[in-house]
Amino acid sequence: MKIIVTGGAGFIGGNFVYYELKNHPEDEIICLDKLTYAGNLETLEEAMKNPKFKFVKGDIADRKFVYELFESEKPDIVINFAAESHVDRSIEDPEIFLKTNVMGTQVLMDACRKYGITRYHQVSTDEVYGDLPLDRPDLFFNEDTPIHTSSPYSASKASADLLVLAYYRTYKLPVTITRCSNNYGPYHFPEKLIPLMIANALADKPLPVYGKGENVRDWLYVEDHCAAIDLVARKGKVGEVYNVGGHNEKTNLEVVKTILKQLGKPESLITFVTDRPGHDRRYAIDPTKIHNELGWLPQTKFDDGIKKTVQWYLDNRNWWESIISGEYKNYYEKMYANR
Ligand code: NAD
Ligand code: DAU
After folding, report:
1. Collapsing DSSP states into helix, strand and coil, what is residue 255?
2. Dist CA 240 CA 2 (whole Å)
3. Which of 119, 126, 146, 297 is 20 to 30 A from 285 (CA-CA)?
4. Is the pLDDT of residue 326 over 90?
5. Is any atom of ligand 1 closer than 6 Å to the C-beta of 129?
6. How far are the Cα atoms of 39, 76, 162 from residue 57, in angstroms, in the given order?
7. Residue of 87, 183, 258 to mutate, ligand 2, most atoms within 8 A of C-beta
């Protein structure tokens, strides 16, 4: 089987490439990635040594390029991770989110129709459901929860999901969608909460917690997400959406304090800063469907996963220090200097 993995130089896509090479050594993986600020070829250094793996630089929204790639490679499965993924950046500048997340998805699916595939899988997010109140712990997102987005990022991901379902209904394109909660683990770009807090704590810099730090996220170790995508893309029912999450709800403050404790750093580093506009209060996934239909269950508990993650950042300083010493400095200054 030949699989095109888009966005494989990013956080989850990179972890997925390694998951596939390990668990399906018979398959060929072609990673298509534009190498935006979030894409990093160093993440794929080991994969590059594997003859079953190939990297191609390109934009999923570039129709001519995508068609040529499909024509020459004739993939069986396409798994679309490629996206602009950071909510704060989408608030600053929404346009690229529409180009990549919506138009890019359309181009990929048009290529799938033109050249024929057995499965197009869309990697989506629980953010398409909007948020839940903090005082209703009994409520969860299931696959029938209405789409109700908050940020330009989540609106772009929801638009893409609707388009994917339209291509199924109208053209019978064999699609599946997974909507997952917040991931954490190796190769997570340092603009996101967990790696940002690890990097700042190690440098004894203030840890910028938005608002009061009481927003809740449902954390899933990235390898568990990869296992879910692999299952759904190969065995999930065509035309269906599957929610992915591990009942691991934590407030942001709890997460930040756990990181500080593990690194032996003082809580006095925590600094409350101006809240994110439109900040979603709580995400919480009901993963009953993927469990009942496909037997998926998360394998990594938060306490173990966060220990492994902190250790990975300690052991792989080169990977993230080279990121935060470059263009990222300007981003950090712009987003946090006067917050
Ligand atoms: P990321 O930002 O770390 O990586 C995105 C990758 O896509 C990068 O390698 C980037 O270079 C590439 N890319 C961006 N635009 C492209 C384009 N036009 N053409 C080709 N490649 C392009 O993102 P991530 O956190 O790994 O997220 C991957 C996917 O999973 C996204 O679709 C995101 O919406 C979804 N998701 C993320 C999370 C999470 O917690 N991070 C949770 C649920 C769903
Ligand atoms: O739920 C899935 C989503 O999770 C994915 O679709 C997104 O691609 C991914 O980025 C993530 O979105 P969040 O906005 O939840 O992740 P982020 O790491 O940006 O923020 C997590 C929480 O931490 C959120 O409540 C905002 C808060 N936060 C974040 C940053 C970067 C802070 O308090 N301080 C910060 O500096």
Report:
1. helix
2. 22
3. 119
4. no
5. no
6. 10, 20, 27
7. 87
- Among 165, 122, 174, 178, residue whose Cα is nearest residue 5: 122
CB-side exposure of 7: number of CA atoms within 13 Å? 25
Give the alpha-carbon dihedral of 331, 334, 335, 338, to 10 degrees.
Answer: 150
Dig out the tokens for 294 from the structure: 């496909």
Token pair 């997570």 is found at: 188
What are the tens digits of pLDDT across the range 232-263? 999 999 999 999 998 999 999 999 999 999 99
Give this prediction's pTM.
0.98
Q: What pLDDT band is residue 339 in, cutting at 50, 70 and 90? A: confident
Residue 41 tokens read as 């070829």
Q: Given this model, what pLDDT does residue 114 score? A: 98
Domain 2-188+220-248+278-301 has CATH 3.40.50.11810: no
127 is catalytic: yes
CA atoms within 13 A on the CB side of 147: 15
> Active-site residue 293, yes or no?
no
**DSSP run (H or E) holding 319:** helix 317-324
**Burial of 321 (C-beta count, 10 Å sphere; 0-12/13-18/19+):** middle
